[in-house]
Amino acid sequence: MNKTRFKELDALRGLAAIMVVLFHFTMGKNQADLGFKLGTTGVDLFFIISGFVILLSLKYVKKSSQFIINRISRLYPTYWASVTLTFMVLLFHSFYFLDFSKVSIVEYFGNMTMFQFYLKIPNLDDSYWTMIVELLFYGFMLILFHFKLLKHINKIGIFLTFFIVLMVHFQFENIWVKRLFYYMPLIQFWPLFFTGILFYQIITKHSNLTKYYGMVILCLFSQISLFDYSGYSKKFIDFWEYAVMLIFYFSLMTLFVNGKLKFIINKPSLFLGKISFSLYLIHQVISTEYVIPILSGKLNFNFWFSSGIALVCSLILATGITFLIEVPYSKKMKNKLYKTMYKRL
User: Fold this and answer.
1) What pLDDT sits at residue 1?
2) CB of 126 within 8 A of CB of 281?
3) Which long-range contacts (CB under 8 A, 24 or more apart) does 337-344 make?
4) 269-295 tens-digit pLDDT
5) d(CA 172, CA 231)
């Protein structure tokens, strides 16, 4: 079965990845004020896209096990490769400088599970924090799919959106609310994922558009209202900067579902979209803790030259992981898991 492919989403993934990369390169530096600090919101765009894609993915599966296999084979080969490469860099640093404070085999294997948040193990790379949010979203949607509740997704989504906003603004000092918000980080970003789900329905159903756009606007204001309570953006930008970026992302998605975003489709944007997952996972530690500091600090190169080299290195590594690991081994893993599943049936 041929799956629908929206090239605009691939291009948007590439945009989000580059924004995050440039944000991390300039984080804590004066250059961040040139606008690169806004890249902290790139993950918000990723979450919206994930919400859209999840319904597209569920359209092509008949069993919960199929969905699980598809998600595992899509995420883990790339993730394992990125974690392993980052760990090897940290390990080399430890042996070279005889400083083992940055590396731990327990942290490595903990990170390989993708559930290090619940294992109380630090991320080897700070970028990994979004993975548990994505996994929780997949798990939630899997539950709805398994119990045939997806037909009620709009009612459930609106209820959760209202519940989260009211809970945060009126009961956030309650210790149980704080714990729920912390241990279920999906809550902090639910309106973004739900927005993606709504945009998917807009582009596929072509009816009741006023209702859908009304819910999209509700999600926009709801997520903006969560600014002080969610994510990391509040550490780097202010409320109005966050609001403007979300309006920008929602506008891009609106253009997309109305067929007005095709101008962003080109070979560079599609290539960045193709490697966006590995680029997101591999760039931070290697670039910001090694490449840039060595070039700009020890070798006295200009910051922008150092960042350019770091970007090139990140792109090369991401390309290698994508085409040498993700493309071949995701397919092999999927086939292997399917064969194992069918043998048990």
Assistant:
1) 41
2) no
3) 337/69, 337/72, 337/73, 338/66, 338/69, 341/65, 341/69
4) 999 999 999 999 999 999 999 999 999
5) 15
Q: Where are the beta strands (DSSP E) in the chain?
A: none
DSSP 110-147: HHHTT-HHHHT---SSGGGHHHHHHHHHHHHHHHHHHT
154-210: pLDDT as tens digits: 999 999 999 999 999 999 889 999 999 999 999 999 999 999 999 999 999 877 899
Does the global pTM surpass 0.85? Answer: yes
Task: List the chain domain ranges.
Answer: 7-344
Instruction: Work out the pLDDT band at 98, boundaries 50, 70, 90.
Output: low
* Residue ranges of E strands in 280-344: none
Residues 192, 48: contact at Cβ < 8 Å? yes
Within 8 A by CB and 6+ apart from 268, the residues are: 14
Nearest to 62 by CA among 1, 117, 129: 1
pLDDT computed for residue 3 by the predictor = 60
Residue 344's pLDDT band (cuts 50, 70, 90) = low
Cβ neighbours of residue 282 closer than 8 Å, sequence gap 6 or more: 82, 85, 86, 125, 314, 317, 318, 321
